[in-house]
Task: structure prediction
Amino acid sequence: MDFSKWVFVIFILKSQFSIGVSVISSDFLNLAKKDEVFNWMVGIRRKIHENPELGYQEFETSKLVRQELDKLGVSYKYPVAVTGVVGYIGSGEPPFVAIRADMDALPMQEMVEWEHKSKVPGKMHACGHDAHVSMLLGAAKILKDHTHLLKGTVVLVFQPAEEGGGGAIRVVDSGVLENVKAIFGLHVSPALRLGQVSSKSGTLLAGSGFFEAVITGKGGHAAIPHHSIDPILAASNIVVSLQHLVSREADPLDSQVVTVAKFQGGGAFNVIPDSVSIGGTFRAFSKQSFMQFKHRIEEVIIAQAIVQRCNATVEFSSKDKPFYPVTINDDKLHKHFQSVGRDVVGASNVLNMLPLMGSEDFSVYQEVIPGYFYFLGMMNESNTKPAFAHSPFFEINEDILPFGAAMHASLVANYLNEIQQSQLDEKHHDEL
Result:
């Protein structure tokens, strides 16, 4: 074949496949909005919401996911990371691209009164993970119906234990993502209007860790405090002193936060206890700042306890509550996200955002795979002051489900398309 004919063939192959994916991708949102698909996702979401399960306890949620994948004819691996499920759609061959949804609920009592309220006392889907699972299953349905367009394999990651349990760590350790070239994840946002998507290249979310300290003194009668060594007073000074690490030691341009959210000690109005327990979280946008912060938190707790004649022990994130790295979005994937977002939700609905001090164990994937994390809006026009995540009044606007399913499906379908086009370009270059 002469040069001109070879160039023509390459051009036709690239154009046909690119147009095919582009046209279908632009229609994914319409497909997800069809009553059949939308009502199916809503039903799944409500079942999960009624039966919330905490990290590594998502047995019924996982069972529901597997049942739906079976109905779709999607193959999967189970168990992964205790209760996780990893599904596969496409050729079964490289390249591999992944989409992730978290499955766990929070230990909170739901305060929203509605027909599908949590049936489990003290547990609630207050962070939208029920919607995340439903949207990933919605994407699976769309992709399964368009397998012929997938020149590679989409990996569906239904992950347990995002809320402090480090489920992503166990997924990575399982080895199921070893050949994956990129991974995408999303989180619902009540701060964005319905259908808006928002993210940024580079640092997006903070690295985070937990700490717990026990301050020990000498208990006694509250009327004669000079015969005791008061651990409550010591702990109170520690709480105040920890805030000085941010206001007086941290670079004002290097955002950091430490919050003491647990303070337990004593059980009577007239008794000084022997010990007090405090705990909380600390966050920073760089590993160096994070580790320095950790070091100073321990120093301040121990030193302030000594000032008040007490002793203190400090424990940081454990296996059950590991450190989460900084969430850093890949620059190339950011450009890909913007391009796909414009096709799916429109250019005016693709927003750039500032970094947030929140954290995500999706960052664990990004340490080993190029990854991209973004937020998807669900604000109702009638509800301009919605409850935010981790509130007992948190509510999902179910109209968000088609947007998440379409974004998921479009991101991975177009990603595989771009890889194929790149390979065609390289082959063409080698032939020349």
Observations:
- The two ends are 12 Å apart (CA to CA).
- The chain is about 40% helix and 25% strand.
- Residues 3-18 have pLDDT under 50 and may be disordered.
- The first strand starts at residue 75 and ends at 80.
